[in-house]
Design a protein that fits this description.
203 residues; mainly alpha
Length: 203
């Protein structure tokens, strides 16, 4: 079983794609949008996270939706550009680099978002059946638990299973790495879920 794509792209091209995708992924749309709309610094609200769920805590649903779409879009765009320039190996590298950029943006002291929207956007661009299956998993889990964090954890954990079921084994190593990072970034949420103190969506 091959868990990685064939590496056919010239190393110099990959060296250029990696940092470019990281820079794209590190654009903190949640922070930018809340400031532009006069909603304050989202890092001083709720959990302090720059993602869509915390932006929603400002009470501005359009701002949260815009953050969700842009955070997902930057991962997808990085993948699509890399695939157009080079190939599947470059696309996977771009997906990983943009995801790392979102989680660890240099200009925010490497304290970024938790990566859920970027994770899903990246998957939709890399392999839309897997991406759609993960989105559906997220929605079903949210419906059952009313916990955004639990939905993220279950959806990310399911990605490798969906990739295997769809026969996309070359994607498995990447989605396992991304899912592991999502879980690490949700460590505090996991502790609250186990303690029964994790707030429901909308609270």
């Amino acid at each position: 079983m091959i868990l990685l794509p064939a590496f056919d792209t010239a190393p110099l091209v990959l060296v250029l794609i990696g940092p470019g995708a990281y820079l794209l992924g590190s654009v903190p749309f949640g922070l930018v949008i809340t400031r532009l709309l006069g909603l304050g610094d989202v890092r001083q609200i709720g959990s302090g996270n720059i993602g869509a769920t915390n932006v929603l805590r400002t009470g501005n649903k359009p701002a949260a939706l815009a953050t969700l779409l842009l955070d997902a879009g930057k991962g997808a765009i990085a993948v699509l550009i890399a695939r157009t320039i080079a190939g599947e190996d470059a696309a996977q590298l771009a997906g990983l680099a943009s995801f790392l950029g979102h989680l660890f943006p240099a200009w925010l002291g490497f304290r970024g978002g938790k990566g859920v929207a970027t994770f899903l956007g990246t998957l939709l661009a890399l392999a839309w059946p897997v991406g759609l299956a993960c989105c559906a998993t997220w929605l079903v889990t949210l419906k059952l638990t009313r916990l955004s964090s639990a939905s993220a954890l279950v959806a990310s954990a399911s990605a490798a299973v969906w990739a295997l079921l769809f026969g996309l084994v070359s994607l498995i190593a990447l989605v396992l790495a991304l899912a592991a990072l999502v879980w690490v970034r949700h460590a505090a949420n996991i502790r609250r879920i186990l303690a029964g103190t994790e707030p429901n969506v909308g609270k």
